[in-house]
């Protein structure tokens, strides 16, 4: 699945930039990183619905060609990691099982990768400052964490439980807005906020059989990055 996602991302970038160098319209590429903040059920600390995620981080790449300023087309790809609050997860498990005395949990983070393309917007508002926006659609891939539970049961003793990861992917969407500041005609700085939301179906296998868990994945990225203008002489947005 990762190979498919990276291939999908590469295709979008190739399509986005094939035309831009020969055109008299501004285009850019950007590298960004920052906090990835889960919310709603994805952040909830409940066994029946929540995922016990905490604030993680995001890295992403994007590029756009403003074929008719202030509007353009472009593509973006990103990786998000959201750690699990194992302390709260263990506490909720102990509260829900009267025979469970204590539990120790090791957990990897949730992983989310995206590869999307769509419409970009960029409008100069004051001197070197511009506002930006985008609405993208494409693939969103999610993976649950590997977890190892070491549980102490009353009258039984220690029991080890291993939960292997499951993954799912689907067509999804992304909305974002931000502010750009041009340091020079060649590059500038960007501060962005992006919104992601979708529901996934994760299939697990265990000794007692297969089972499915439906989970919401919802988060907001707040990122800071550098944007490189591919044609500085033409980089004047309307």
Summarize the structure.
With 238 residues, the chain is mainly β. It has helices at residues 2-17, 86-96; strands at residues 27-38, 56-68, 71-82, 100-107, 110-126, 129-143, 147-153, 157-163, 167-182, 187-206, 209-229. It has a single domain, classed as Porin.
Characterization of the model:
The protein has a single domain (2-18, 29-234), classed as Porin. The two termini are 41 Å apart. By secondary structure, it is mainly β. Strands 1-2-3-5-6-9-10-11 form an 8-stranded antiparallel β-barrel. The protein has a 3-stranded antiparallel sheet with strand order 4-7-8, covered by helices on one side. Residues 14-23 have low confidence and may be disordered. The protein contains 2 helices and 11 strands; from the N terminus they run H-E-E-E-H-E-E-E-E-E-E-E-E.
């Amino acid at each position: 699945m990762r190979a498919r996602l990276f291939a999908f991302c590469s295709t979008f970038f190739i399509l986005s930039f094939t035309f831009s160098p020969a055109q008299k319209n501004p285009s850019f590429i950007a590298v960004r990183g920052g906090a990835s903040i889960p919310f709603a059920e994805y952040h909830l600390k409940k066994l029946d619905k929540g995922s016990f995620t905490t604030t993680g981080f995001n890295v992403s790449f994007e590029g756009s060609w403003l074929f008719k300023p202030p509007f353009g087309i472009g593509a973006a790809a990103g990786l998000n990691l959201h750690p699990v609050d194992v302390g709260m997860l263990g506490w909720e498990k102990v509260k829900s099982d009267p025979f469970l005395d204590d539990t120790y949990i090791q957990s990897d983070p949730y992983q989310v990768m995206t590869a999307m393309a769509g419409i970009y917007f960029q409008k100069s508002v004051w001197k070197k400052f511009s506002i930006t926006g985008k609405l993208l659609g494409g693939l969103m891939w999610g993976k649950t964490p590997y977890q190892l539970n070491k549980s102490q049961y009353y009258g039984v003793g220690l029991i080890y439980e291993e939960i292997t990861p499951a993954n799912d992917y689907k067509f999804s969407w992304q909305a974002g807005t931000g502010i750009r500041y041009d340091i020079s005609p060649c590059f500038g700085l960007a501060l962005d906020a992006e919104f992601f939301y979708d529901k996934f179906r994760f299939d697990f296998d265990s000794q007692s059989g297969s089972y499915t868990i439906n989970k919401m994945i919802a988060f907001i990225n707040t990122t800071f990055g550098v944007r490189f203008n591919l044609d500085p002489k033409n980089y004047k947005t309307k």
